[in-house]
């Protein structure tokens, strides 16, 4: 299994955040945002490739991965966008290049449009950005989170494995699937899994959806051609709403483009980021 450890800690308004940086200072810094129910681990291959030419910042959002998980914790989109703004200040990054996947896409858009976070450029990878979002399963769990929290551990593990597996089109390697599922196991992990779904409110994207025309920075929208979670048409619609945005479908990839087509995604991102120098 590929080693992936976050060695730094930041105390945010939503709990302790684990983060790290790769590469050497000098080039334009790049910040990577993960989605749900994932962590920075999904960016490991892309991050290491980008670190050859950039200083790359990775982090696990509160309630995810190696970061703090606690009862009553606010892990909503609203909270995460504030935490991201706090982190940018902590890192001293005035205008980084930002690459965001899934839920992280909404976090980056909210931070930019509502909290004044400034980016040199923005790359969105299968982001949660346009209503309606959330699969029937996601909505079912959100409406009955307290019931699902009480599942026996073995049933919970099976549910999470099946759910995470569905994010990939060709299928995930067993070791990768194990690593993606592991943070959601045990008493803390199981409660955290249902907590983040229960707090996933579409109102948080409704607040900014009408403002995507205000995004005035270079923007790339990448999308897994075979995404079963958010259809390709949503990516085309989003790119059309952002002035000058370029849309790039990734063949053979599902929602987890980083796992399904890491070389193709890295190539698209590297070319886009080079253009911003």
Automatic annotation (TrEMBL):
The keyword Nuclease does not apply. InterPro entries: AB_hydrolase_1, AB_hydrolase_fold, Carboxylesterase_BioH, Epox_hydrolase-like. The keyword Membrane does not apply. Keywords: Hydrolase. Residues 29-262 form the AB hydrolase-1 domain. GO terms for molecular function: hydrolase activity. It comes from the Bacteria. Pfam families: Abhydrolase_1. This is Alpha/beta fold hydrolase. The lineage of its organism: Bacteria, Bacillati, Actinomycetota, Actinomycetes, Kitasatosporales.
